[in-house]
Amino acid sequence: MASITRGIDGGRLLEEGGGIKGGGLSKEMRHGRTAHNMSSSSLRKKSDLSLVSKVPCTLLRSFLANLQEIFLGTKLFILFPAVPLAVVAHYYHFGRAWVFALSLLGLTPLAERVSFLTEQIAFYTGPTVGGLLNATCGNATELIIALFALHRSKIEVVKWSLMGSVLSNLLLVLGTSLFCGGLANLHKEQLFDPKQAEVNTGLLLLGALCQTLPLIFGYAVRNSSGEQGATTEPTLVLSRACSIVMLVAYVAYLFFQLKTHRRLFESQEEDENDDAVSEDAPAMGFASALAWLIGMTVVIAVLSEYVVGTIEAASESWGISVSFISIILLPIVGNAAEHAGAVIFAFKNKLDITLGVSLGSATQISMFVVPLSVIVAWIMGIELDLNFKILETACLVISILVTAFTLQDGTSHYMKGFVLLLCYIVIAVCFFVLKTPLTEGLNSSYLAARKDVMVI
What we know:
InterPro entries: CaH_exchang, CAX-like, NaCa_Exmemb, NCX_ion-bd_dom_sf. The chain crosses the membrane at residues 70-92, 129-150, 162-186, 198-217, 237-256, 289-308, 320-347, 359-380, 386-407, 414-434. There is one protein chain. By secondary structure, the protein is mostly helical. It is 70% helix and 3% strand. It contains 17 helices and 4 strands. The strands form 2 sheets. Strands 1-2 form a two-stranded antiparallel sheet. A two-stranded antiparallel ribbon has the order 3-4. Helix 4 crosses helix 5 (96-125). It starts with 5 loop residues before the first strand and ends with a helix.
């Protein structure tokens, strides 16, 4: 009972026992806070627990406090009604485009709450385990959507959505942050530590190499053999080998980030007058946070299945290609909470946090979620490779190079952000104009195999 018994201290319920004493954490415990946590905390707000504190039953008081903290402890609480509305729209057949739109809106506050819950768990597990939790759950929405798309054999949707997440973080989020931060701090010198950016851009370039090689390899084998289907198996083998290398690199990156060079990735502590909620004390117990995290993950999985199952219907209804929805719309809506936090800290001239959010998320997608999807598809017997096609791969590589050149000197101004934003707009227009047939949103290798069978 000690782990769930709570007392009232200054209007907030604080944990009694479980290894957390009083209302503050040591600097070592706060090391578990990463840029992702700081970004999400900018969208949180304090919950008034004065009414809950009057409930006589301890267990009921604890449950109501957790409930209020989960649903009212974020500035995005207004979007929570989209979650039940998406379920109702699905079961009562309101229209698949409506299900798609409501599911996307519902994923926005859920993604922010997952970040909040992983941070709550990190209070009890320590900075290293907390950092690992953030490294695996930071982009849980993208990973779950990719897994459901794999289950439905929508190979191109998987590739488009993951590549779109990287482009969104590098160009849209970082560009908007640098642009708005530059305008808000015209008379201040905007500086950041370029060492963290160098590590992330180096990993992104490694990921781009691993995604470029299967494309070049396919063209080389096809030109030498002259057979269209001769590249499928070798490209798969190369992609799986590259995926293993990428995962090894990501594990090394985590060791580098959480152990040997932790100081490079430590988030700035917020000023006392910041609007963001202070996170020096846990808002709920370990068992409660873990239970809510599991529940939120299940709800995200349900909405992700709705998104994957209705994406073609939304494409037909709105007259927009599946590629544009997957590359542009999905990443923007799915990461809206995290992106908003990055922009807020850029306004406050805290660019290290902004870079940690944008570059860290892009690195996590490129070096963890993408290769993990290939490995999982391998286990499921699905032919997912790293060949993202020539247009998509060119956009990805050029975006990484532009970002690396933008951040190389450790200074920022609004013009740098404006250039990144223009790059993203040009790419968005490109995929809006490109009307990819809906059949290409399915398992392309499976369709090719079926075509070969019909010819025979």
